[in-house]
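job 3f2a | input accepted
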Amino acid sequence: QVQLVESGGGSVQAGGSLRLSCSVSGYTVNSQCMAWFRQAPGKEREGVAMLNNGGVFTYYADSVKGRFTISQDHAKNTLYLQMNSLKPEDTAMYYCAAARRGLCAWLASWFDIWGQGTQVTVSS
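job 3f2a | predicted structure (124 res):
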């Protein structure tokens, strides 16, 4: 059974940092697209960062570019999201997602497997 389990969320003040982890089981990530999405209350789920080809290519939403870094540890089969210079508008539930294909797209429907989410709250 394929599972994605996120961890690392929490509450921080603006300007702080958090590192989210997504542990993958039952599924070996090689060149497939992996992503982090987030959803704030009353808003649609939006893509934050993606990678494919084993992490060779990375993609970021404009709102997080320069502040967030997505990475992958193949040995641990784990995806990470390092979040620096956090802002109150980054507050949301963050989800890890995996696609069964190598190409990436900024569409939630593109992804086949989802984690349960981890909450990030940034106070001003």
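job 3f2a | The mean pLDDT is 95.
job 3f2a | closed
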